[in-house]
Design brief:
Length: 354
C-alpha cells in the first residue's frame, strides 16, 4: 500500500455526493426527489414526510444511484428520534444500540438524557459495549460497570458483550483478516442501531460509524488485538502499533463482519457535536473541540454516512484541527477501504429534515 496520505481531492474523485446542486429554502417543503414541472406548482409535501430538500456539500455531480443520508442541524432527542424513524424499517426484535459510553467523566460523550429518550422509543433494546484492550476505566468488566455508573448509563440494560467470551464472525474477502473475535453477546440480537458520536481519533483519524462497530464490537482481549494488528502484549507506545492504511483496512474488515452479520437489520446514526480531535477513549484528557457542532446524520448505508460526515467537516469553516487529524492519520482510507469492500455507496443525497 502506498504510504502517501490520501488527499481529499483524490478521495472524492468519482464519488457523487448529492442529487441537488443547491440548498433548497426551508419553505420549499418538497418531498425528496420530487421534480417541479414547468408552469406547474409543486404538489404540497405530505405531512408525514418532513423533508425540506437536498443539500450539496461538495458541489460535485454524480451519475447513477445515491444512498439517502438524512440530516438535521438540530441536535436533540426529538431530532434524533425523527431521523431514526426515517431509516428504521428493518429494525425489530431484540435490538442492540452500539454506543461509545466513554471513559470516566468524559466531557464529550453523547448527552445521557438524549440517549435515554431515544432508547425509550426502541422496544426490546439495550446499549451494547465491549471491554477495552488498553488499561483504563473499561479494561475489565468490573471496571467497565463502575464507569457506566459514573457516566450515567444506568437507565436501561447495558450488555458488555464480551463479558461471557467471544464469538468469531467471518470476514468475506478481507484485506487482512478472515474472521474477527466479537463479544459473544452480539449473537443475542436481531438488529443493531449504531449510535455514534462522530469525532477525531488518535490512530484512526476519525471515529464514525465504521470505527464504532469495527473496534467497538470486537472483544477486548482478542478481537481488538486483531483489529489493531498486534499480538501478545501490545507495545506500550501506541505509535509502534500498525497505523495509517493498514489500520484502516483492518477496521474495514472488522466492520464488514458486523455489517454482514446483521444484513439489512442495521442502521447508522452519526452525531456531529463536541468533535474533539480525540476519541472518547481519551476521557478527561481529550482536547477541547475547535469546530462548531454540525448536526445529526442517519442512514442505512455505512459508507455513505461516514462519507457525508467527513464531507461536512471538510466543508466547515472552522474544522482545520479535525481535518488535520484525519489527514495526518490517513483516515480517509477508511472510506476508500469500505468502497473497495462494497460496504456501501460513496454517492449519497443529503436530505435535510426539519
Amino acid at each position: 500500500m502506498n504510504d502517501m496520505p490520501v488527499s481529499r481531492r483524490k478521495m472524492l474523485q468519482g464519488s457523487a455526493l448529492l442529487a441537488a446542486a443547491a440548498i433548497l429554502a426551508p419553505g420549499a417543503a418538497l418531498a425528496a426527489g420530487e421534480a417541479k414541472a414547468p408552469g406547474k406548482a409543486p404538489a404540497p409535501a405530505p405531512a408525514q414526510a418532513p423533508v425540506i430538500g437536498s443539500r450539496n456539500v461538495t458541489g460535485q455531480p454524480h451519475k447513477g444511484s445515491a444512498a439517502k443520508v438524512y440530516f438535521s442541524p438540530v441536535i436533540d432527542a426529538a431530532s434524533l428520534i425523527k431521523l431514526y424513524n426515517l431509516v428504521n424499517e428493518n429494525i425489530y426484535g431484540k435490538v442492540a444500540i452500539k454506543l461509545h459510553t466513554g471513559e470516566p467523566n468524559g466531557p464529550n460523550i453523547l448527552p445521557r438524557d438524549m440517549v435515554k429518550a431515544f432508547q425509550a422509543q426502541v422496544p426490546e433494546s439495550a446499549i451494547v459495549e465491549t471491554n477495552t484492550l488498553y488499561e483504563g476505566g473499561r479494561h475489565t468488566t468490573e471496571k467497565h460497570r463502575e464507569t457506566l455508573k459514573v457516566n450515567g448509563w444506568t437507565f436501561c440494560p447495558v450488555d458488555i458483550m464480551d463479558e461471557h467470551g467471544d464469538v468469531n464472525l467471518p470476514v468475506e474477502d478481507g484485506f487482512h483478516l478472515k474472521e474477527v473475535a466479537m463479544g459473544k453477546g452480539i449473537t443475542d440480537y436481531d438488529s443493531m442501531i449504531v449510535l455514534t458520536h462522530f469525532k477525531g481519533h488518535a490512530m484512526g483519524g476519525f471515529g464514525g460509524s465504521m470505527k464504532n462497530i469495527a473496534i467497538g464490537c470486537a472483544s477486548g482481549q482478542v478481537g481488538k488485538r486483531q483489529v489493531h494488528g498486534v499480538e501478545g502484549t501490545p507495545p506500550a507506545d501506541w505509535g509502534q502499533w500498525p497505523a495509517k492504511e493498514k489500520l484502516m483496512e483492518l477496521m474495514a474488515d472488522s466492520a464488514k463482519a458486523v455489517a454482514d452479520h446483521f444484513g439489512k437489520h442495521i442502521v447508522y446514526i452519526n452525531v456531529l457535536r463536541n468533535m474533539s480531535v480525540d476519541c472518547d477513549c481519551a476521557g478527561t484528557s481529550a482536547h477541547d473541540p475547535t469546530i462548531k457542532d454540525i448536526g445529526i446524520l442517519a442512514s442505512s448505508d455505512l459508507l455513505a454516512i461516514d462519507q457525508a460526515a467527513c464531507d461536512l467537516v471538510f466543508a466547515s469553516a472552522d474544522g482545520a484541527d479535525l481535518r488535520e487529524r484525519i489527514q495526518s492519520r490517513h483516515g480517509l482510507r477508511q472510506l476508500s477501504a469500505m468502497a473497495e469492500h462494497k460496504m456501501g455507496n460513496p454517492q449519497y443525497e443529503l436530505i435535510t429534515v426539519n
